[in-house]
């Protein structure tokens, strides 16, 4: 149910996915997105018919494991997923939620999707608020988000999160100096947000 939803309402608009051909998500990407569900940190909202209208998938983040994860990424066979993960690791390094906010672990808002028919109702903000409450209840002291579009960035701003780093897509290049993510406006940069929970 969740996979069908994000295939329909998240991936077709997600900058890192559509910025590299082919524009479809890789199986490894989908597997990574869904891997966090058992932690109980993710939240969804449904309409009166029990149909999903919004999904926010959240991962536990521990920056101390980043060097090991970066090394593992080098062995990933799928070039697109390897490229995306390399970029995400770079952003994690820049934001460094655990070191920056002096916490052992945090919760990362990873995938946010809302059915277009229900947009304009602050569903994205409500999902982030609920996920932040869940994180606090489970003992986490910080939340973070990598916002790959201006739309998710605006929601993070409304939640009172602080933008601590950003990378323009036009500046992220391969070893030959070629731009990797080819995106139309309004996709301009990926922004990293953090917030300490009380």
UniProtKB/TrEMBL annotation:
Pathway: Aromatic compound metabolism; melatonin biosynthesis; melatonin from serotonin: step 1/2. Residues 1-186 form the N-acetyltransferase domain. This is aralkylamine N-acetyltransferase. Pfam families: Acetyltransf_1. The keyword Acyltransferase applies. Keywords: Acyltransferase, Transferase. PANTHER family: AT07410P-RELATED, N-ACETYLTRANSFERASE-RELATED. It comes from Lutzomyia longipalpis (Sand fly). It catalyses: dopamine + (9Z)-octadecenoyl-CoA = N-(9Z-octadecanoyl)-dopamine + CoA + H(+); dopamine + hexadecanoyl-CoA = N-hexadecanoyl-dopamine + CoA + H(+); serotonin + hexadecanoyl-CoA = N-hexadecanoyl-serotonin + CoA + H(+); serotonin + (5Z,8Z,11Z,14Z)-eicosatetraenoyl-CoA = N-[(5Z,8Z,11Z,14Z)-eicosatetraenoyl]-serotonin + CoA + H(+). It is an enzyme of class 2 (transferase). InterPro entries: Acyl_CoA_acyltransferase, GNAT_dom. Its EC number is 2.3.1.87. One of its GO terms (molecular function) is aralkylamine N-acetyltransferase activity. Belongs to the acetyltransferase family. AANAT subfamily.
